[in-house]
Amino acid sequence: MIGRIIEGPEDLAEGMDWLSRHDNRFAQAYALTGELPLRRRPEGFAELLSAIVSQQVSTASARAIWARVEAAGLTTPAAIRASPDEALRACGLSRPKLRYARALVESGLDFDALTELPDAKVIAQLVELPGIGAWTAEIYAMFSLGRADVFAHNDLALQEAARLLFGLDSRPNERGMREIAAAWSPWRSVAARLLWAYYRVAKDREGVR
């Protein structure tokens, strides 16, 4: 069963209202961050490739690399098939990410079909592809598919923001973050947006592209 889809600001407002009533610390953080960014992105190959590019690099580096990929016109399967490895490397893709990009091209992934799958099945199908872990799958489900109850549990910025907001002794690991975030269902994607915004306020830098 597919749950709520975040389409516009009214959905974020509904989610924030629920979270604020659930835990007043969300309301306190929201007072500092102001209105949350929607962060909806298109569906399809280019956005999943963009998520791969963003893996394990800083937000600034991810932006710079993706800008070069776009400028080179390497955002479609056909363009990547027709380009030598050197062209992708020149954009800043590491050798592993170059392999992942080519594997995505050859996967024949049916992006339209993903929209009809429940969250868990979306993530399970995506992580079967080379180079796509849970973080990349969760980011795609949140931003491109608009799923309201998905959380990037292994995201360092979310973990650090949770540590700060909830006064934890240490930054939670992925397992700990899963346990904490479970209480925020059915609005975990809104909680993620709030925590990324709170991270920006607390650290004076972006935690997600």
For the terminal residues, how far apart are their CA atoms?
A: 29 Å
- The protein's oligomeric status is single chain
Q: What's the total number of strands? A: 0
In percent terms, what proportion of residues is strand?
under 5%
The 3D shape can be described as globular
The amount of helix comes to: 55-70%
The profile of the biggest β sheet is:
none
Radius of gyration: 17 Å
Query: What is the fold-level CATH name, i.e. the topology of the largest domain?
Result: Endonuclease III, domain 1
**Tally the helices: what do you get?**
13
Compressed to H and E, one letter per element, the order equals HHHHHHHHHHHHH
Structural class: mainly alpha
- Low-pLDDT segments, ≥5 res: none
CATH class of the largest domain: Mainly Alpha
Q: Provide the residue-averaged pLDDT.
A: 95
CATH architecture term of the largest domain: Orthogonal Bundle
